């Protein structure tokens, strides 16, 4: 599925991808009306932000036989559960990312009120928590990459704790439009 193939298809609510598809490219379903999707065993590569701004998406389902990806509680991971590829933008409530995940590639947590990030996570993708408007606080573990536009438009975010040994000010535009942010705690020594 080529980049932006279903962009702005607001009335597209579900899709079953045929077995003939082996790649889904960047932003394939950008701003679509998807509520669910089924990814077959044939898909071996997935681009970035494929479900960006899919605010109705509640579950990403993957064929059990797929050797590259899997779905756990409707969340898209690589098969080894070390990379979180996408969280459904319409899924509400609280979510704890499984321990062992090291990379978070894309976001979609628009309706989450709480996200628990385990210490195993060391990489956050660009804009990874953008528009998580219900999120009020978060603890960020030590990362191997610089944060950039990570929490754009998280309007309810009021408290951030960063467990890193680098100054959070070295990162770029992390908290744009976080109008309620009042506390940032940087803990360089923890354990």
Brief write-up:
With 191 residues, the protein is an all-beta fold. 0% of the residues lie in helices and 27% in strands. The strands form 5 sheets. It has a 5-stranded mixed sheet with strand order 6-7-8-10-12, with no helix packed on it. It has a 3-stranded parallel sheet with strand order 1-3-5, with no helix packed on it. A 3-stranded parallel sheet has the order 13-14-15, with no helix packed on it.
Index terms:
mainly beta, single chain, 191 residues, five-stranded mixed β-sheet, globular, three-stranded parallel β-sheet
Low-confidence stretches: none
Element order: H for helix, E for strand: EEEEEEEEEEEEEEE
Number of strands: 15
Shape: globular
Oligomer: single chain
N→C terminal distance: 45 Å
Number of helices: 0
Which class best fits the helix and strand makeup?
mainly beta
Walk me through this protein's architecture.
There is one protein chain. This protein is an all-beta fold and 191 residues long. The protein contains no helices and 15 strands. It has strands spanning 14-16, 23-24, 36-39, 45-46, 59-62, 69-72, 75-78, 83-86, 93-96, 103-104, 112-116, 123-124, 137-140, 159-162, 183-186. A 5-stranded mixed β-sheet has the order 6-7-8-10-12, with no helix packed on it. A 3-stranded parallel β-sheet has the order 1-3-5, with no helix packed on it. β6 and β7 form a beta hairpin. The termini are far apart.
